Amino acid sequence: MSERRCILTGDRADPALLVRLALSPDGMVMPDVRAKAPGRGAWVGVSRGELESALAKGKLKSALMRAFKTGPVEIPADLPQLIDDALERQAMDRLGLEARASNIVTGSEKIEVAARRGQVHMLMHAADAAADGCRKLDQAWRVGEDMEGTDRAGQVLPVGREALSKAMGRDNVVHLGVSDAAAAQRIGAVLSRWQSYRGCANGDRRDALPEAQAAEMSNGQP
Question: How many domains does the chain contain in total?
Answer without folding.
Answer: 2
